[in-house]
Design goal:
The complex is a heterodimer of chains A (161) and B (164). With 161 residues, chain A is of the alpha/beta class. Chain A has four helices and six strands. Chain A has a six-stranded mixed beta sheet, covered by helices on one side. The chains are: A alpha/beta (161), B alpha/beta (164).
């Protein structure tokens, strides 16, 4: 009896559609990733407002201060308010020395004029007492900062809190 | 003369494995670093280091006073434009404030650049009401989504410490 000896064949999957899809996914994630708001803390529930629009020209230097509460899973505040600063939870009224340290650091590296040009951007939870925000601004002034900005979430009409 | 046998055209295959590895790593990086956040805007407030005494030549800025009183729980008790009470309903009270400020700015015959708003607030008032008040003084949005600016200069009055 005669047997035919079949040559072994290599089965190759067509990778082209998968690579196409993967590149499209990468392009999507690259576009939607926002590296500007890396200093924003997710624990802060910002108030929203229609007039709050991102600045047309991005600031060169800014110091972002996040003020908020520690919350439980239900979203109720359990402690605070704190300034969330480099992994520490600092009570708002104790933030003064850190403001001074920030100013001195920028002054040493870039000079006093540049340090005073820096804007202190306050991202505060909507429930924080205004008096504490004023105290924070006052501590910033004592550390020689001049420019301050208050953050709010951009909202469309009917979307505001 | 001896000729070599004509070789068959070999299929040149690119090595794709390395590229696919890197592409997947990039994909995972972007997926993990993705943070979906709504856009944020801000309101500038200029708080100079010390109050400069006005010279005799320059007229003093026209200060508008907006006062916000708070209930013990931090909610809005009463909103005032000067001495006029505008209520405590949110957002109606702030809409009324916006209308009052707009009317005041309109009556200044183009001198609204000199206007400054001073916010007088109770210590425990929730921050969200201050944002609303600043927004009401700053301007309004038109129906076609353009911003009309009323007053740029906004400052806080000195802190009112709560009675012990």
């Amino acid at each position: 009896m005669k047997f035919k000896h079949a040559k072994p064949t290599i089965v190759e999957a067509d990778m082209t559609p998968m690579i196409d899809m993967t590149f499209q996914l990468i392009a999507f994630f690259m576009i939607v990733t926002n590296f500007d708001q890396t200093q924003a803390d997710e624990r802060v529930k910002l108030p929203s407002d229609q007039l709050a629009r991102p600045p047309l020209v991005a600031r060169e230097d800014e110091l972002v201060i996040n003020v908020g509460y520690k919350r439980n899973l239900a979203g109720e505040s359990i402690a605070g308010p704190f300034v969330f600063y480099t992994g520490e939870d600092v009570p708002v009224l104790e933030f003064g020395p850190r403001f001074q340290r920030e100013f001195l650091l920028v002054e040493k590296v870039e000079g006093k004029a540049k340090a005073q040009e820096m804007t202190v951007v306050i991202r505060s939870d909507g429930d924080v007492p205004t008096g504490l925000i004023q105290e924070l601004i006052k501590m910033g002034q004592e550390a020689q900062f001049v420019k301050f900005a208050l953050k709010a979430k951009a909202a469309t009409e009917g979307e505001e809190e | 003369m001896k000729f070599r046998k004509h070789q068959e055209d070999g299929k040149v295959e690119m090595q794709m494995a390395a590229m696919i590895d890197i592409v997947f790593q990039l994909l995972i990086f972007f997926m993990l670093t993705l943070k979906i956040v709504s856009p944020e805007g801000d309101f500038n407030i200029n708080m100079p280091l010390g109050a400069v005494a006005p010279s005799n030549d320059t007229p003093p800025p026209l200060d508008l006073k907006v006062k916000l009183e708070a209930n013990p729980d931090g909610s809005l008790k009463q909103l005032y434009f000067g001495e006029i009470a505008l209520g405590n309903a949110v957002p109606d009270a702030f809409d009324r404030l916006n209308g009052k400020v707009g009317g005041w700015v309109g009556s200044q015959d183009g001198f609204s650049d000199d206007l400054e708003v001073e916010l007088i607030t109770d210590y425990n008032l929730h921050y969200r009401h201050i944002i609303k008040a600043i927004s009401a003084c700053r301007g309004r949005m038109t129906a076609d989504g353009k911003q009309v600016t009323y007053i740029e200069k906004i400052k806080f009055a000195p802190i009112k410490k709560p009675a012990a």
